[in-house]
Design a protein that fits this description.
This protein is mostly helical. Helix content is 78%, strand content 0%. It has helices at 2-26, 30-42, 47-63, 66-74, 79-83, 87-100, 104-115, 121-124, 127-136, 143-182. Helix 1 packs across helix 10 and helix 2 (30-42) crosses helix 9. The radius of gyration is 26 Å and the shape is rod-shaped. It starts with a helix and ends in a 10-residue tail after the last helix.
Length: 192
């Protein structure tokens, strides 16, 4: 039971570290990323699909690609409107604009141009609904908590590496000492 508890704790710390790294990669706050992951989970969208779509969106916006421009215009948005906002607010604006589209085929087309897939469509309409229930149920990971857990993981990794080096040196030195002290008794020299 102790080992399982330890493994669970290590898993929690590693998940927080992964969340911080992914948040940085996608240029989203940890709260927003946590929220999106929770919504995706609720509608059976794999996290890899979500992160791939968000990466595609970020690349299209950064490159000001033709597809991203067409997707934004189909939603009634422009690069200027989108770039005037923080990354979290951008996503919220795009989600609201997608939900407001009356024609589902046009919405799916715009989503494909922006996200590279229409796989996120089931979650677009649920963003607001799940956001409040997720916050009420405390599913949203706070930035400070996630960063603290991630920093702890990195500290433990560094400490563990140091302990391994010290133990390795200790074992090596101890082996030499034993060989020097007791080697002659058993017919082995210092090179034991």
């Amino acid at each position: 039971a102790l080992r399982q508890g330890f493994q669970f704790t290590v898993g929690l710390f590693e998940a927080a570290d992964a969340m911080v790294q992914l948040s940085t990669k996608l240029d989203l706050s940890i709260e927003k990323l946590s929220h999106l992951e929770r919504v995706a989970f609720g509608v059976n969208i794999p996290v890899d699909t979500l992160t791939g779509a968000l990466s595609h969106l970020n690349k299209g916006l950064a490159d000001m690609s033709k597809a991203a421009d067409e997707g934004l215009r189909a939603m009634g948005l422009s690069f200027e409107q989108v770039f005037a906002l923080s990354p979290d607010e951008r996503l919220r604006l795009i989600g609201r604009a997608a939900v407001a589209m009356q024609d589902s085929m046009q919405r799916l087309g715009a989503e494909v141009k922006l996200f590279g897939t229409d796989a996120l469509d089931p979650m677009i309409g649920k963003l607001g609904e799940v956001a409040s229930s997720a916050r009420n149920a405390a599913y949203i990971t706070e930035t400070e908590i996630a960063r603290g857990l991630a920093n702890t993981v990195n500290s433990y990794r560094t400490s563990f590496d140091t302990i391994k080096l010290v133990m390795s040196a200790f074992v090596e030195e101890n082996t030499r000492a034993w060989a020097t002290l007791f080697g002659p008794l058993f017919g082995a020299g210092p090179g034991y």
